[in-house]
Amino acid sequence: MKNLLILLLTVSSVICYGQNFKPLADYKFKNNGDYKTHEPDVLRCCNYILLHADDKEDINLAIARQFVVTWMTGTEDYTFTIGGPISKIGTKNINLMSVYMAAAAKYVLENPDKKNDADAVALNTYKGLIAYVENDKNGVKKNAEYKKLKEAMDKGNLAEYIKN
User: Fold this and answer.
1) CA distances (Å), 35 to each of 57, 103, 121, 129, in order?
2) pLDDT score, position 93
3) Could you tell me if 66 and 48 are in contact, meaning their C-beta atoms sit under 8 angstroms apart?
4) Distance (Å) of CA 157 to CA 72, 116, 120, 162
5) How far is residue 140 CA from its own chain's centroid?
6) Residue 3 lies in a domain
7) What are the Cα distances from residue 117, in Å, to 24, 82, 120?
8) pTM of the entire structure?
9) Which residues contact residue 49 at a Cβ distance below 8 angstroms, ignoring those fewer than 6 apart?
10) Distance CA 20, CA 135 (A)
11) At what angle do helices 59-74 and 94-110 cross, to 10 degrees?
12) Distance between CA atoms of residues 163 and 60, nearest Å
C-alpha cells in the first residue's frame, strides 16, 4: 500500500510539473477537426498556466500560453468573449490575461454543456482568475480594479459585478 501511494504521488508530480510543450510550439491547426483533437493538449496547457507563476525563463509556460490563445481564436466549437474587469486588470499584465484565457478555456473544456451559457463561463473564468491571484506563490500584484473584483466575490456579488 505504501509503495502504491509513493507511485501515485510520483506520477502526479510528473504529470503536473514535468510537462514538455515544445512539440506544440510550432503546431499549425489546419481544420476544425485539429482543434477538437487537440482539446486534451489545450486543457493540459491551461492547467499548467493556472498552476505556475509568471516566469519569463519557463519556455513551457510561453508555449502553453501561445497554444491556448491560438486554439481559442481558431476553434469553431467554442466562442470566447474578453471583456469586463479583465480589460482593466490585465491591460498591463500579460500573465493575468493569459490566466484569464486559460481559466475560460479550462471551464468550457471541462463543462461543454455550459459552453453557450456566457454568464456561467464568465463567472467561472473570473473565479479561476481570482483563485490564481489569491495564491501567494504566484506573486501577483493586486491593482485597485482587482481588489474591487475580489471584494465583489467576497460579498457574493461577483456575477453582477462582472456584467457591469
Assistant:
1) 28, 18, 19, 24
2) 85
3) no
4) 28, 22, 14, 9
5) 15
6) no
7) 30, 15, 5
8) 0.86
9) 61, 64, 65, 68, 98, 99, 102
10) 24
11) 60
12) 33
For residue 83, what pLDDT is reported?
Answer: 84
Residue 9 lies in a domain: no
The domain of 127 spans: 21-163
Other CB atoms within a 10 A radius of the CB of residue 91 amount to: 12
* Residue 131 resides in a domain: yes
Quote the number of domains for the chain: 1
Question: Model confidence over 33-79: pLDDT tens digits?
Answer: 999 999 999 999 999 999 999 999 999 999 999 999 999 999 999 99
Convert the pLDDT of each residue in 91-134 to its tens digit: 778 889 999 999 999 999 999 999 999 999 999 999 999 999 99
12 within domain boundaries? no
